[in-house]
Amino acid sequence: MRTPAGKECHFYYQDFHRGNSTQECRLIAQNQLSPAWKPEDCFSCPVPGILLANSSPYLVLEATVKKGFLGLNRHIEVQASCSRHLIDVPEPHIGCPKCALEKPGLRDLFGEA
After folding, report:
1. What 3-state DSSP class applies to 50?
2. Is residue 73 part of a domain?
3. Which H or E run contains 97?
4. Domain total for the chain?
5. What secondary structure does DSSP assign to 62-90, as a single string?
6. Among 23, 19, 17, which residue's Cα sits nearest to residue 1?
C-alpha cells in the first residue's frame, strides 16, 4: 500500500472507506516498546527502500520510533535478522551475508571466492 510519503510498503495500512479513518504501521505496532507511530514518520522511514532492495523471504525486520532532542529529529530505526541462518543482518539493504554466499552471482558482493 502507498504510504503518506508516496512509497510502497506492505507494513503500512490505511482505511478511509465509509467514514473510517484508520492509518497504521503494522511493523511498528508489533514492537510494544516503541513510541506510537505517526503518519509523518513515513517520510523518514527506511523500510520501503529496504523492501525494494531486498526481497529475501528470510529477512525479518523490527522497527522502533526514536525521538530526538526535544521531540525534534524523530526517525525510524530498523534492525534486521535472517530467519534462515539466525544471525543479525548489519546492512538490511544488501541482506544476509550467508544467504548471499549461497547464491553464485552474489559472492563477489561480499568479496569471497
Report:
1. helix
2. yes
3. helix 97-102
4. 1
5. EEEEE--GGG-S-EEEEEEEETTTTEEES
6. 23
Please tell me whether residue 41 adopts helix, strand or coil conformation: helix
Q: CA-based Rg of the chain, rounded to a whole angstrom?
A: 16
Residue with grid cell 524523530, as numbered in its chain: 74
In a domain, 7, yes or no: no
Q: Within a domain: residue 83? A: yes
- pLDDT tens string, the chain, 113 residues long: the values are 899 999 999 999 999 888 888 999 999 999 999 999 999 999 999 999 999 999 899 999 999 999 877 767 889 999 999 999 999 999 999 999 998 888 776 556 555 55
Domain, as residue range, for 53: 27-110
Q: Is 4 a domain residue?
A: no
